[in-house]
Amino acid sequence: MSQTPFNNADLLAFLDASPTPYHAVSTMSASLLAAGFVELKERDAWTLQPGGRYFVVREGSSIIAFTLGHDDLAEAGWRMVGAHTDSPCLRVKPNPELHRHGFNQLAVDVYGGALLNPWFDRDLGLAGRVNYRQRGGAVKSTLINLNRPVGVVPSLAIHLDREANNNRTVNPQTDMPVVLFQDEKKLDFRQLLASVLAEQGLGDVEQVLDYELSFYDCQGAAVVGWQEDFIASARLDNLLSCYLGLQGLLNAEGDGHRILVCNDHEEVGSQSAIGAQGPMLESVLRRIAGDEVSLQRAVANSMMISADNAHGIHPNYSDKHDANHGPRLNGGPVIKINVNQRYATSSETSGIFRNLCSELGEAVQSFVVRADMACGSTIGPITASGIGIRTLDIGVPTFAMHSIRELAGSRDSAAMVRILAAFYQLSSLP
């Protein structure tokens, strides 16, 4: 592996190509294959070789990529980076059809802790996974991405709600159904999906069985600001960390025991077969280690960086931050600390990271939530408590987290890739 200069254009392309976790994992898989990684199937026996590069996908939306070094694994341990592939969004319900006043709409569920107001009056595309039965009886699945404006959630005019700027609230059940088109006939959504699959060349679809589909903002990711200081995009939380973790792995020099894990379902608690609270990572680690003693020794010699965006200090709402812990966009990666273990950072893991950044000449910032406010969490504490690996929580500072369009610094990503690549190359830990 060799160092490749970081390019924001490639990051923007990745964000645009990844409207759902399924598409993100598909895009990451393609990058790994192009870099010489071999895809493994969990149902198969694995024959792993020192110096080998591999990855495994579970249910299409969680991925683990790993490399094997030539040093003894139990002595060397793993250098691990973790992130998550999912983002808050609007998911189409199983029986979504609504027909009112000649408008065909789709009812939606709110996935995760979405900031709902920015979803109004946006050009919405639709993407995800569709499961169907072929005419011969086989059950298949495929990804779709209607990368054009097919829906909208129109606002109510201020003339009909004069208090809208003072106290308008959003009811996700009644206010968020998405308008698709006008027709006097009620929509059959599964039939519509069958026609979409036919347009993709799947002419053997007998019946659409089910789907996991999300609406998303069609506006593409962009570098913005008078001096191009920022990146604006949907799903920066946390596809930005997935991409930076992947680039760190691909740019790490030499060999070593390295892992990148990107789980789905973090935004809804991680408690699933493919979430960080599920068995996927531990299962892969056991298969790599080979036996229980080797696994436990390797874990004891390992460290994980949980990468998930941090709250940058907002110039209009600076009172929402602790005065001494307000990370600035383009100010470098943020170490996230919480004494109640909502983040897994310890002084040991923080010290290792600070020392690494100092050696690279990279700035480091800190985030601690105000003592009178609740703190969010990440996959860090989940993985640390489940695997027993010492863990650090970090992130790129971001505005408008969980909005349909978030904002990050345009210079922070390159710094993070350099740091993660150097972390992957650490030969030993204290």
Descriptive tags:
six-stranded antiparallel beta sheet; 29% strand; single chain; Aminopeptidase; globular; 20 strands; Aminopeptidase i, Domain 2; 26% helix; 430 residues; alpha/beta
CATH topology of the largest domain: Aminopeptidase
CATH superfamily of the largest domain, please? Zn peptidases
Q: Report the count of strand segments.
A: 20
So, CATH architecture of the largest domain? 3-Layer(aba) Sandwich
> What average pLDDT do the residues reach?
96
The biggest beta sheet is recorded as:
9 strands, mixed
The number of helices is 11
User: What is the name of the CATH class of the largest domain?
Assistant: Alpha Beta
Which residue ranges are poorly predicted, with pLDDT under 50 across at least 5 consecutive positions? none
Beta-strand percentage range:
25-35%
